[in-house]
Amino acid sequence: MVKAIPEVKTPILIFADDDVLWPRTFLPWILAPFENPKIGGVGTSQRLKRTENRTFWTILGAFYLERRNFEFSATTHMDGGVSCLSGRTVAYRTKILQDKAFMDGFTNELWREQFRLNTDDDNFLTRWIVNHGWDSYEQCHDECELRTTLSDDSKFLKQCLRWARSNWRSNYTSMFKEKHIWHRQPWCSYALHMATFNPPALISDFGLLYLLYKATEHDEILRTSCITAQLIWLLCTKVVKLLPHFWRYPSDIRYLPISILFGYFHGFIKYYALFTLNETAWGSREGVDDDEDQEEEPFAYNRIDGFDVENGNLDEKFQPSVL
Predict the structure, then answer these.
(1) Digit-coded pLDDT (tens) for 276-321
(2) Structural domain includes residue 322
(3) Which domain holds residue 167?
(4) If DSSP states are collapsed to H, E and C, what string results for 46-61?
(5) pLDDT tens for residues 202-236?
(6) What is the total count of domains within the chain?
């Protein structure tokens, strides 16, 4: 990646994982926000590739991406904030990434001044554009929605652990060291960054129910009404982000209990991650942390999934390079 960036000659650069599928309308839509000269990076909505042989893990992965789409769409339209532009596919202005200061920071990022970060690259890129006066944007439209894969076995737990560690490290850095998000993206700071520091749902949900139970012990009817209302509200909070998925695939509503139970279990993952932040390896990708010294040739692809970028119908000033 670092070797490829200096070779790019186009004003827009797109990073793409090798397991994503784009609709034919994808490129014009991901490039459209760059008509605004303040936009430095653009992400897209994502969904899991639908397969016939779905597992417990693929269902959890599909729900994870659906929640992500909901949250990022909301914060984008509130104040333009996105906590992390996902590298599954993301577009940046090339001049931002070819800046020497960026290259130095990106290749020498440390956690606690001593642990080299092999992960967290998406978070660093997102923070960089915000800290240097650029805006980010999440293009949440069907025409710009990619399909991707996640682990379909227990490795999904390792992915969740890696994401949780990245969130702790990056959100702490954004909020308490760099601090730009407080005035540039106040709603995103509240809705996404601060959420990392919330107590686990297992504690907050049942803690609220217990306090409500104790506060209404003088009136049995009031207690029943209040606890019922609170349970309905909690259920709504667990369902609302998944409604687009259930609209597309109504039969998946039967997996809602699994989603709720895993949400409570995820609290343990989140706090295990907190106490293991010095672990900076990928964890879910075998061998990826062992090949840092391998020599690779610079590359820049101009053809993705049959779409000819060089000879397409895109405005010349927005011709991208895809890495």
Answers:
(1) 999 987 655 555 555 444 444 433 333 333 334 444 445 555 556 6
(2) no
(3) 7-316
(4) EEECCCCCCCHHHHHH
(5) 999 999 999 999 999 999 999 999 999 999 999 99
(6) 1
For the chain, state the CA radius of gyration. 21
Instruction: Examine residue 2 and state whether it is found in any structural domain, yes or no.
Output: no
232: its two tokens: 């309905």
Contacting residues for 215 by C-beta, under 8 A, at least 6 apart: none
Put residue 145 in one of left, alpha, beta given phi > 0 → left and psi -120 to 50 → alpha: beta
Residues 164 and 156: beta-carbon distance below 8 Å: no
* From 19-28, 149-158, 237-246, 302-311, the region with the lowest mean pLDDT: 302-311
CA distance 241 to 63: 9
Q: Is residue 273 part of a domain?
A: yes
Residue 219, helix vs strand vs coil: coil
DSSP summary character for residue 21: B
Tokens of 37: 């000269």
Closest among 126, 120, 91, 93 to 108, alpha carbons compared: 120
Residue 14, helix vs strand vs coil: strand
Tell me whether strands 110-111 and 46-48 are parallel, antiparallel or unpaired. unpaired
3-state secondary structure of 276: coil
What's residue 303's pLDDT? 36
Structural domain contains residue 323: no
Instruction: Give me the percent of the chain exceeding a pLDDT of 70.
Output: 87
